[in-house]
Automatic annotation (TrEMBL):
The lineage of its organism: Bacteria, Pseudomonadati, Pseudomonadota, Betaproteobacteria, Burkholderiales. It is an enzyme of class 3 (hydrolase). GO terms for molecular function: nucleoside diphosphate phosphatase activity; ribonucleoside triphosphate phosphatase activity; thiamine diphosphate phosphatase activity. This is Phosphatase NudJ. Its EC number is 3.6.1.-. Pfam families: NUDIX (PF00293).
Length: 165
């Protein structure tokens, strides 16, 4: 990286959903094979993190996600030498609940299926996690971490950018 290039982490959102001691995950196709992840994806321009996590959860699970708390902000770095990729992800994780699967709603491309795993099953499958943040987010949730949704602030300029004269 040259001195005038600015480092830009990739901003993602994740939905952490627990029901009866089991966590909702997706199994997805990746260049590294079938991997497990929380329902998650990239923050798109002009959307709030809450809008993004609701959208991503629906796309990946065919279930409506209702955010209830902010779980936290997480950083992880991923290197894929074959593609000369070195990406740092900034994950904004939210915990909440989902409704039943919406009949006829297709899963996002690359998502093979959804599944519910216990913390012990999550720990036993760590080698198949898309990121070390999958387990960390679920463990933080199980430990009782909850922050108010208002901890993530969205300025109005997100929707109508300020113009400097």
């Amino acid at each position: 990286m040259t001195n005038h290039e600015r480092w830009k982490p990739s901003v993602t959102v994740a939905a952490v959903v627990e029901r009866d001691g089991r966590y909702l995950l997706v199994e997805e196709e990746t260049p590294e094979g079938l991997m497990l992840n929380n329902p998650a994806g990239h923050l798109d321009p002009g959307e709030t993190p809450l809008q993004a996590v609701v959208r991503e959860a629906l796309e990946e699970t065919a279930r409506a996600f209702t955010p209830e708390s902010f779980l936290g902000c997480y950083l992880a770095r991923f290197q894929r030498p074959a593609r000369q990729e070195d990406v740092t992800y900034l994950r904004l994780a939210f915990s909440g609940s989902v409704g039943e699967e919406i009949a006829g709603h297709a899963l996002d491309q690359g998502i093979v299926r959804t599944l519910w795993l216990s913390l012990d099953e999550l720990r036993a499958t760590a080698a198949r996690h898309r990121s070390p943040l999958v387990l960390r987010c679920c463990e933080d949730h199980a430990a009782g971490r909850r922050l108010p949704l208002e901890a993530v602030y969205n300025d109005a300029s997100l929707f109508a950018p300020l113009q400097k004269l």
